[in-house]
């Protein structure tokens, strides 16, 4: 009888660990950080375009490090540290940053205008978020789709489109953070 209760307790522990592993993803703080960064960075395109490159050159990599630290602390707090998942996130978003850096070469060799480069960056980020939603955590898929719609908007709608797109994407990130933003795609080996 005592052994049966021990098994029940062990199975309960395993069931709870599996349940948590299906839900755990990025903490809300990462979504909120990027919501603020995006509003500021996108508004800069409309109001102070000469600072956009410098802003993202600093905020992009520093934000990546902040996101990694917040993600690691969150995983530790909930008891779900998984180095392979951390590496997967780092490779995914690191690959996005490499694509962005390589896209700068298109301006340096005269193939692309600086204005078009900002639009290309948005397309790269939209695609990266969408794929992160497919492979890492589902809310990013919807954020990627919002960014893709924003990409189309900045191509064809004049005015303060970048600011409006930044606010809409930020609201999407905030909604994901409030909703829990943590519905992960189960990790496969």
Walk me through the topology.
Blueprint: H1 2-23, H2 28-47, H3 52-78, H4 83-108, H5 114-135, H6 139-156, H7 161-179
Helix content: over 70%
The shape, in one word, is: elongated
Distance between the termini: 38 Å
Percent of residues in beta strands:
under 5%
| Major β-sheet annotation | none
**Weakly predicted, low-confidence segments:** none
Question: What does this protein look like?
Answer:
The radius of gyration is 19 Å and the shape is elongated. The protein contains seven helices and no strands. It has helices at 2-23, 28-47, 52-78, 83-108, 114-135, 139-156, 161-179. It is mainly α.
What is this structure, in a nutshell?
The chain has about 190 residues and is mainly alpha-helical. The protein has helices at about 1-25, 30-45, 50-80, 85-110, 115-135, 140-155, 160-180.
Features:
single chain, 189 residues, mainly alpha, elongated, 7 helices
